[in-house]
Amino acid sequence: MRTDTSWEHQVTIDTPVDLERLRAMMASSAASMVVPFVDLRAAYETQKTEIDDAIATVLRETDFVLGAAIEEFEAAFAAYCGVDHAVGVDSGFSALELSLRANGVSDGDEVITPANTFVATVGAIDILDARPVLVDVRPDTYTLDPECVEAAITPATRAIVPVHLYGQPVDMVAINEIAEAHGLIVIEDACQAHGACYRGARAGSFGDAAAFSFYPAKNLGALGDGGMVVTNDGDVASQIRKLRNLGSATKYVHEIKGFNRRLDTLHAAVLSVKLARLDADNAARRRTAWLYNELLRDVPVRTPATRPDAEHVYHLYVVQVEERERLREHLAETGVATGIHYPVPIHQQPAYHALGRVGTRFPVTDHCASRILSLPIYPGIPDAAVAYTAAQITDFYSG
Ligand SMILES: *Cc1c(COP(=O)(O)O)cnc(C)c1O
């Protein structure tokens, strides 16, 4: 099942790049630059008129809660993902939690998920009093290892939550085969993978349901918190519509106990505008990843591996390096902001200590935690900033 070998440098990009010009830029980038990790203002400026109009419309209509823009955005996002239903909620965390709940996951159920993920994946399982069962990830893609999933299944296992981490889809054929063989539910955590594809279909269209986050810095980001559940199951969708709205489908009739977890109309209106640019933004991210891959070829930096059957959307561009802390300091001193996703694995967090049960080990996750480094990437990052960043890394390893 393992194919750890030659997945690197396989990013395909739509437009040709003048690499010679870039290498020249890199060689001459003596002047200092400030390279932010992300630039949300650039995204706003690109669509300022449409975003301002969308906000003005919501202000005029004053339908701030469950307004018309919600259904419009839900329909557009469902169509974009190639699924039948989408339900807007207040965060990616809620999208995960309500997806699990609506699929019947509850106390005592074991839910298998990767040790290498954002804490919200595990938090959403834990809050149901279900038991997150952490498993290790593949050393090449950092995503859920199907062999580890298989090995973690017990009679109490109820669901699998694969995470399309950094924007790259998990091997969903393998995960769905395991789920089918054992009668398990699959909830995709697609919070970093808006628009990513796997074997020709979108992330979010493979599981019983999938969760998206519209946290501002995600590939599709709102003006604050927001999220979405997508599913082909009409019953699950209508259950989540109730759960997000105090258990009610008809005003003042509360069929079930619920929460207040609605997506705000304002966010939906802005997200509809931004959805139109998502493919272009993802193409821009892929182009930046391609540039980094090329410019970092001759330095001791492990660039991200990409599955040949997937289209990565590079929510993050994560490399593996030795001497990470020193490199990070060098980059900070030369004006380049970087991140680590994530510096402390879940089982080493104070809140989730109990999940690192005696005898469980996550060698890949632990190994990566001290070596991974996320480089600046966002739609609109100038080529010169990418060349400058690559030049600083090259300097560090040759100096
Ligand atoms: C962002 C994120 C979430 C949570 O989304 P919020 O909207 O911040 O609640 C969950 N899982 C992953 C992998 C994420 O990156």
Provide structural commentary.
This protein has 399 residues and is an alpha/beta fold. Helices cover 38% and strands 13% of the residues. The chain is built from 14 helices and 14 strands. The protein has helices spanning 19-27, 40-46, 48-61, 68-81, 92-102, 119-126, 146-152, 172-182, 234-243, 265-275, 278-295, 324-333, 363-369, 383-398, and strands spanning 85-89, 110-114, 131-135, 157-160, 185-189, 197-198, 201-202, 209-213, 227-231, 248-250, 253-254, 310-311, 317-320, 372-375. The strands form 4 sheets. A 7-stranded mixed sheet has the order 1-9-8-5-4-2-3, sandwiched between helices. A 3-stranded antiparallel sheet has the order 7-6-12, with no helix packed on it. A hairpin with a 2-residue loop joins β6 and β7 (201-202). The radius of gyration is 21 Å and the shape is globular. The relative contact order is 0.18. Mean pLDDT is 94; it is low at 1-6. Pyridoxal-5'-phosphate (PLP) binds at residues 91-93, 117-118, 120-121, 163, 189, 191-192, 213, 215, 225, 227.
Report the radius of gyration as a whole number of Å: 21 Å
How confident overall, as mean pLDDT?
A: 94
Strand content: 5-15%
Present as ligands are: pyridoxal-5'-phosphate
Shape: globular
Please work out how many helical segments DSSP would assign: 14
Strands side by side in the biggest sheet: 1-9-8-5-4-2-3
Largest sheet: 7 strands, mixed
Secondary-structure class: alpha/beta
* End-to-end distance: 41 Å
Low-pLDDT stretches? 1-6
Helix content: 25-40%
SSE string = HHHHEHEHEHEHEEEEEHEEHHEEHHEH
SS elements, strand count: 14
